[in-house]
Every structure is written in structure tokens, then in C-alpha cells.
Amino acid sequence: MKQRTQVGIVGAGPSGLLLSHLLARQGIDSIVIEDRSRDHVENRVRAGVLEQGTVDTLIEAGLGERMLDEGLIHDGIEIRFNGERHRVDFPSLTDGKRITIYGQGEVVKDLIDARLADGGVIHFEVSATSIHDIDGDAPVIRYRKDEAGHEIACDYIAGCDGFHGICRESVPEGILTGYERVYPYAWLGVLSDSPPAAEEVAYCHSDRGFALLSLRSPAVSRLYLQVAPDEDIEAWPDERFWEELRLRSATKDDGAGIEPGPVLQKGITPMRSYVVEPMRHGRLFLAGDAAHIVPPTGAKGMNLAVADIRYLTEALAAFYRAGDAAGLDAYSTRALRRVWKAQRFSWWMTTMLHLSPDDSPFDRRRQIGELDYVTTSVAAMTALAENYVGLPLDDGGAP
Ligand code: APR
Ligand code: PHB
């Protein structure tokens, strides 16, 4: 089948779906194709912290209803180290900004519902996707579905196909540069049918390694432990997980507050920082995880994707409205300016809180000095808070 659209979108994660939705609101047509099933993309367990700007973007786009009802608004985070609890308060340090706890899967469900209700086209479970002629004037996406070959002719292609997608790889050799850092640890994540162990998201530094206490709702906890990058998940039966979590998050005065419950999901996530430059080649624009990955400490992944999509939508809207291509030409530079600040923040949070096998006793004491500084100096706490709630979307994220 041959189809034609203005913007062909590869990938129905948060990036591709939000782009399709925002473009439709500007009267711009798109078709989204997705490798996996609808059920798979909706139920993938990913992070769940939304920056204020992400929340505002979703509300402005008419996607706020369920998020405002079910999302949990948090005014701060906890940092635990040396057996003590410390709190960083966001509204007082950031002019009233907060974060919202609402799982990425829920955002994806809301987006798919909205697209389908508006008559949007999403093809799930396609395979053998390839993109062609991104250097020319008439790019094409090809894919297979139900044993048949299909083609989408478009003006532009949005590569929203995540880190392992095909779009970035389709750019001819020698044009893109990747910048990467791989960390010597991974996260073992558990979703559990148990009430949250802490009132706010708690980042725990300990001599046994990092732990994170997070949540999805008043009845569901999301919990993580630092493990080796090649860790075998079979080595972590539930009892061992709960015991290690308790030891790493315990404080001197009141224990850890952990209530073990049925484990709904368990998985290991590697930790990587990655950026590709530029985020555009010819008629291909890369956005979200297709262009950059952050380690999850600080929960910037989906928020960065939303920022890219806002910039890309503004640029495409100006082009289709007035034939003005300046925004498209500026997209990569504009997005990367903010991306690198989020990279810095994610790297900083990660290295401050995890134990690295390469660390010396000096490094360990320096980490404690840094945590002590960050939880006592108003200047340092402000720096953490303004990044955590999200740097502004304009001016490359200059606060
Ligand atoms: N053809 C079609 N779809 C593809 C292809 C392909 N060849 N390759 C990958 N995809 C799909 C994946 O199945 C996935 O659903 O692209 C989608 C990319 O979605 P995400 O990985 O969620 O990336 P993105 O939308 O940029 O969202 C960024 O999601 O991965 C998290 O940590 C990340 O929170 C961040 C956010
Ligand atoms: C999560 O709830 O999944 C989460 C929270 C904070 C992070 C990372 C992940 O830094």
C-alpha cells in the first residue's frame, strides 16, 4: 500500500506519539509506525517523574485530564546518606515549581487514546522498517505488515524510534558524531504491590551501593538497587531484593520504612549517557532516545523527549504555516543546548550517588562531602532543585 503524509513518524513511544498529537493540533498530518504491539508500548515499565514543563505541555495539549486526577504532586525529594535523611524542597527553591509522579506508560496510554479518538493513524506491529532519500526532497518510509510491503511518502521523517532504532543508523557514515559514557553499574528495578516506603522519592547513598525508593501510586512502589552491569537477575530472588533494599535505605533513627509486597515486575537496566550530534540530517529529524540517552538518576529521559518534541513541533508549524524553515535549521542546536545540561545533571546525580568499582577511599569521602554540601547549602540545593523540576524550555534551558 502507498500512503502519503506530511510528517512520517517512526516509533510510538512518548516522542513519536506526542509529536503526532501536537502536529495534529497545528493542522499537520502524520502517520506513526511502531514495531511493537499497542499493549507492549502501553505496559512497558519506565520512569515516572514529570517535570513541571512536561506537565504544562501535556495540559496545554489537552492531555491533562487523567494525569491531573491520578498523578501525585510532590514538593521535594529525600536524600539519605550516612544513615540520615535530608529533604530538598522544590517550591521554595524554584519559585513554586513541583514534580508529578505519573508513569510513562500512563502518558503513552493517554496519547494513544487521544490520537485514535482524533482519527490519527498509528500502525502497530510493523517490521523491516527502512527509510530512504532523506538527502533528497521526497523521503520515504518502507515497512512490512501482514506479509505485505507498505510505503509512506512524506515531506519530513521524524526518527522517534529510541536508542536501538533504525533512523539514526540510516544517516550516511561520517555525518553524525556520537558521544558516550557507559557506567560500571546497572539498576535492578522492581514494581511492587505495596505502599510506598517513603513519602517522597528517596535517593539513598550507602556503603553497599545506591538504592532508590519511588512510587507509582499510594498502593504501588517502584524500587531500584544498584547492581553490577552484568548482573544475573536469577541471583535476586524477592527476599534478597527486599533485604538489600532495607539495608541500603535504613536510617539511624527509624529504619527504612519498607513493607515488602508482591513483586509485579523485575528487570535490569544498563546505565549509559549518549548524545548524537547533530540531531538532523536532510529531511530526517531525530528526537528523544533516538538522539540521546541519560542514566535514569534524576528521571530526565522522558522529559527531554517532550522538550525535543516541543521544539520540533514549533519548527514544523512555522514551516507549514509560513514557509519559514529557520526553525527547522535551528532545531538541532536548540535541542542540544538543553540536552547537554540535562546530560550534565544526570551524570552528576549518578556519580554522586553510586559506588563505582574504580573509586578510591578518597572518592568515597569526597562523595560524602558533596552530599553534605548539597543538603545544607541553599545555593547547592537550588542548583539541584532547578534541574530536577526541569530547566526552562526557552533559551536552551538557561535558568
Ligand atoms: N520501526 C518502528 N518502530 C520502532 C523501530 C522500527 N524500526 N525501532 C524502534 N521502534 C519503536 C520502539 O518499539 C519504541 O516503541 O520506537 C519506540 C521508541 O520509544 P522509546 O524508546 O520510548 O523512546 P522515546 O519515545 O524517545 O521516549 C523517550 O522513553 O525510553 C524511554 O528513557 C526513555 O523516558 C525516555 C523516553
Ligand atoms: C521512577 O519512579 O521510576 C524513578 C524515579 C526517579 C528516578 C528514576 C526513576 O530518578
Bound molecules: adenosine-5-diphosphoribose, P-hydroxybenzoic acid
What structural category arises from helix and sheet content? Answer: alpha/beta
Give the CATH class of the largest domain: Alpha Beta
Task: Characterize the main sheet.
Answer: 8 strands, mixed
Shape: globular
Question: CATH homologous superfamily of the largest domain?
Answer: FAD/NAD(P)-binding domain
What count of helical segments does DSSP give? 11
Weakly predicted, low-confidence segments: none
Number of domains: 2
Quick tags:
about 400 residues; alpha/beta; D-Amino Acid Oxidase, Chain A, domain 2; six-stranded mixed beta sheet; 11 helices; about 35% helix; binds P-hydroxybenzoic acid
Any overview of this molecule?
It is globular, with a radius of gyration of 21 Å. The protein is 35% helix and 28% strand. The protein has 399 residues and is α/β, with parallel strands linked by helices. The termini are far apart. It has 2 domains: 2-48 and 103-176 and 278-357, FAD/NAD(P)-binding domain (3-Layer(bba) Sandwich); 180-271, D-Amino Acid Oxidase, subunit A, domain 2 (D-Amino Acid Oxidase, Chain A, domain 2, 2-Layer Sandwich). Strand 2, helix 1 (14-25) and strand 3 form a beta-alpha-beta unit. The strands form 4 sheets. It has an 8-stranded mixed β-sheet. Strands 9-3-2-13-20-19 form a 6-stranded mixed β-sheet, covered by helices on one side. P-hydroxybenzoic acid binds next to strand 16.
Helix and strand arrangement:
Elements: E1 2-4, E2 7-10, H1 14-25, E3 30-33, H2 38-43, E4 49-50, H3 52-60, H4 65-70, E5 72-74, E6 76-81, E7 84-89, H5 90-93, E8 99-101, H6 104-117, E9 121-123, E10 127-132, E11 140-145, E12 148-153, E13 156-159, E14 177-192, E15 202-204, E16 211-217, E17 220-227, H7 238-249, E18 263-277, E19 280-281, E20 284-286, E21 292-293, H8 301-322, H9 326-353, H10 361-374, H11 378-388
Parallel strand pairs: 1-12, 2-3, 2-13, 3-9, 6-15, 13-20
Antiparallel strand pairs: 4-8, 5-8, 6-7, 10-11, 11-12, 14-17, 14-18, 15-16, 16-17, 18-21, 19-20
The protein binds adenosine-5-diphosphoribose and P-hydroxybenzoic acid.
The site of P-hydroxybenzoic acid (PHB) has 11 residues, from strand 16.
